[in-house]
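Q: What would this chain look like folded?
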Amino acid sequence: MDLSTLERLPLWIGGRAALAHTTRYGEVTNPATGEVLRHVPLGDAHDVAAAVAAAAAALAAWRSAPALRRARILMRFRDLMETHKKDLARLLSQEHGKTEIDAEGSITRGIEVVEFATGIPHLLKGEFSDNAGTGVDSFSLRQAVGVCAGITPFNFPAMVPMWMFPVAIACGNTFILKPSERVPTLSLRMAELLHEAGLPEGVFNVVPGDKEAVDAILAHPEIKAVSFVGSTPVARYIYETGTRHGKRVQALGGAKNHAVVMPDADLAFAAEALIGAAYGSAGERCMAVSVAVAVGAAADPLCAGLAERARRVRVGPGDVAESDMGPVITCAARDRIVGLIDRGVVEGATLVVDGRKPQVAGHETGFFVGPTLFDHVHADMTIYREEIFGPVLVIVRVDSLESAIALINANPYANGAALFTRSGYAARRFQQDTEVGMLGINVPIPVPMAFYSFGGWRNSLFGDLHVHGMDGVRFYTRAKAVTARWPDDGSAAPGFTMPTLG
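A: My prediction, written as structure tokens:
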């Protein structure tokens, strides 16, 4: 079906579009125009229960299917995602607002996780010890957890879900995706492509919704594992509530990512890199750089370079090829960001570039905020302390690399950080001493490739394991150790003493 033409979206349960039980619907808008595109069901406990029933019914057959068979379905899904990538990017841009080229890039990064998951036959291999004791072999297995769920944010409607479900289903689990109600259509479209790839009914299900659906997922006894990406307060709630119900939980929270610029850095290169990292996708990335830490003599030329380049960023709708940056997701998000810019001015930061009233001809009702740059920001200011999640970059001036590292380590968030330098010594100090989950050296947004894992420290992650990569495999499987003996010589069985294998 053409989901983009529907006035009301369905759920996806048991391998097909399904009518929702809920009577509550939300609006899906085009952030560039404010226009309501379609309505999305806000799934309730009955809808979640129906999805869980379908996933549970499919679990036994899917879990026992050969890993290679599961991988081949994902190979076909990967090819379908590539075939339809430009159409999917247009749909993503329409609901989210980011430029189509940025949307396409994020889909590609999600596809890379699918490619990683197609290697699951190798990744699920256990260990084996021949003759660990006399006539005794020991080995390990990794087995599926069961019915799993993913709760995903609005800012990456394709990539973040693909951090989760390809690995989960490759490992033999079944899956329920609760996408953000702001951007639900792409998740339904991916469900259709999985079905076209040959995924059995019930293995992948989609229930859009808000807190009611989230709470139903967290409380349902058949759901064994929950993955989440979103804000820190919600991540903490997801983790505490899910674990209280006996679930395995990985909950990725907010960020305040710093980029340190040393005096010896190529300042033109650093400024250009920071512009894209701060203002790409209107700053609505958990890995966006929101703090530039200028060390010593780097400060004045860096500020000048950032200001000049920020003023040349072209703000416009995502479907216009000339646009560098689109709108933010909602009117409420725009007003919150503008309020924080106002707060920065009141608290004494220097507003170098003011993005509060961008002029976008023909899109006066869109939710636009232009690139905004502050200088002389201090750690006690609101614009430094809060995750703005918008196109606002602040400059903090320090006198040394040690001070920059101390600033980063004192921040409650610890998702990503970057360093721009020509010094190998400085780079090594930074990567050894900075207490952050993901680091970049002359790379502004250090999102790991799919065969590594993504996740932060401190208030940026609740749980022990990051997403995708081998941490993803570990999260979606349980380890089992087997000790086996096959006697045929009439030897005596173990007695009452503690068995040994000598």
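The CA atoms of residues 149 and 342 lie 39 Å apart.
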